[in-house]
Write a structure and sequence with these properties.
CATH topology: Globin-like
CATH superfamily: Globins
Subunit structure: Monomeric.
EC number: 1.15.1.1
Distance between the termini: 27 Å
Keywords: Cytoplasm, Heme, Iron, Metal-binding, Nucleus, Oxidoreductase, Oxygen transport, Transport
Protein name: superoxide dismutase
Main location: cytoplasm
Shape: globular
Number of strands: 0
Number of domains: 1
Helix content: 55-70%
CATH architecture: Orthogonal Bundle
Order of helices and strands: HHHHHHH
Strand content: under 5%
């Protein structure tokens, strides 16, 4: 870039950063699908407790995410969050959605359909900023690796990160499809 040229303007609210969104999610290999399904089976036995741990960490570390949850947006204390029936209910919904994805990894159309429904609901009905899906994915990976260290060594974490990238790709695709104007991976 010459001294006279200025850098391209940063995207403004309402613009889509299309160049950051890959054309498609990186597909999982058969071995990666097997790793995910094997490790998920161990996690899902405790799905509600794990889901609650994920949401509590998410809300404690990213309190702005609570703005979308009138039932527990004023809760500050992690112990109060843990006792909340509404938070437990949402934790089960999150974990069940992931379970549906994991159970259907052999069927990309089903995965895409499920995640499109999740994305559209969060975009249209709840108006959740899409960056929170990326943040939640990272929190989930942290919690899984801490609560199940023997089942989530670095190589398994890499496979799960690939899956979470695909989840984010599908969800943000649904946001774009319904006309959500800001889908940026740089927002995190």
């Amino acid at each position: 870039m010459s001294r006279r040229e200025s850098p391209p303007p940063a995207p403004q609210r309402g613009e889509v950063e299309r160049e950051e969104r890959p054309e498609r999610a990186e597909p999982l290999s058969d071995a990666e699908r097997e790793i995910i399904q094997d490790t998920w089976g161990l996690v899902y036995k405790n799905c509600e407790d794990v889901g609650v741990s994920v949401l509590i960490r998410f809300f404690v570390n990213f309190p702005s995410a609570k703005q979308y949850f009138s039932q527990f947006q004023d809760m500050e204390d992690p112990e109060e969050m843990e006792r909340s029936s509404q938070l437990r209910h949402h934790a089960r919904r999150v974990m069940n959605a992931i379970n549906t994805v994991v159970e259907n990894l052999h069927d990309p159309e089903k995965v895409s359909s499920v995640l499109a429904l999740v994305g559209k609901a969060h975009a249209i009905k709840y108006k959740v900023e899409p960056m929170y899906f990326k943040i939640l994915s990272g929190v989930m990976l942290e919690v899984l690796s801490e609560e199940f260290p023997e089942f989530f060594p670095a190589e398994v974490q890499m496979v799960w990160a690939k899956l979470m990238g695909a989840v984010y790709w599908h969800v943000t695709g649904a946001y774009t499809e319904v006309g959500w104007l800001q889908v940026s991976s740089s927002a995190v």
